[in-house]
Amino acid sequence: MFELSKQFRFDAAHTLERSIDTESSRRIHGHSYRAEVTVRGRPDPATGMIVDLGLLERSMEDARDALDHRFLDEINDLGPATMENLSRWIWNRLSPELDNLFKVSVYRDSSGDACTYWGEEVAA
Ligand SMILES: Nc1nc2c(c(=O)[nH]1)N=C([C@H](O)[C@H](O)COP(=O)(O)OP(=O)(O)OP(=O)(O)O)CN2
Ligand SMILES: [Zn+2]
């Protein structure tokens, strides 16, 4: 079994309601994010690939365009612009076209923040 990943970066602004650092979090501020999309599977013997990295990049472009240099509070189906909601939002955007999608991680390298979404568990 293999995991294959590709990353993209985006810079975006947001506000956040929190119980700590309330005032500064409510002010519009920005972060530099890095998102990592991982597929899992076995390479096709003919191509040697799980999925062509070029195709993976194409399907990520749309998500990047929707996030980069945006005010995240204005993205209707995101909810509060947290790392958790961003990783799930990227997952929801990519999962219809990526059969082998395994996880989506979002990082804020400057502060050491990371969040990974594996999709919702399907009840047995
Ligand atoms: N569970 C989560 N908690 C918080 C999130 C999140 O996405 N998930 N996000 C934030 C805010 O984005 C906040 O701006 C980050 O706050 P903080 O860690 O205090 O860092 P700074 O704003 O000071 O950012 P710098 O890296 O210092 O610029 C909070 N919590
Ligand atoms: Zn923030």
Task: Give me a quick take on this structure.
The chain has helices at 22-26, 53-67, 83-94, and strands at residues 2-14, 29-41, 70-71, 101-108, 113-117. The protein is an alpha+beta fold.
Topology, please?
Elements: E1 2-14, H1 22-26, E2 29-41, H2 53-67, E3 70-71, H3 83-94, E4 101-108, E5 113-117
Parallel strand pairs: 1-3
Antiparallel strand pairs: 1-2, 2-4, 4-5
Bound molecules: ligand LPXRUNBV and zinc ion.
Count of beta strands? 5
**What structural category arises from helix and sheet content?**
alpha+beta
Name the hetero compounds present: the ligand Nc1nc2c(c(=O)[nH]1)N=C([C@H](O)[C@H](O)COP(=O)(O)OP(=O)(O)OP(=O)(O)O)CN2, zinc ion
Instruction: Please state the CA-atom Rg, rounded to the nearest Å.
Output: 16 Å
**SSE order:** EHEHEHEE
Strand content: 25-35%
The average pLDDT is 96
CATH class reads Alpha Beta
> Which of globular, elongated, flat, extended, rod-shaped describes the shape?
elongated
Provide the low-confidence segments as ranges: none
What is the distance, rounded to the nearest whole angstrom, between the alpha carbons of the first and last residues? 23 Å
Q: What share of the residues lie within helices?
A: 25-40%
CATH T-level fold name: Tetrahydropterin Synthase, Chain A
Main sheet makeup: 5 strands, mixed
EC number: 4.-.-.-
Family: Belongs to the PTPS family. QueD subfamily.
Catalytic activity: 7,8-dihydroneopterin 3'-triphosphate + H2O = 6-carboxy-5,6,7,8-tetrahydropterin + triphosphate + acetaldehyde + 2 H(+)
Keywords: Lyase, Metal-binding, Queuosine biosynthesis, Zinc
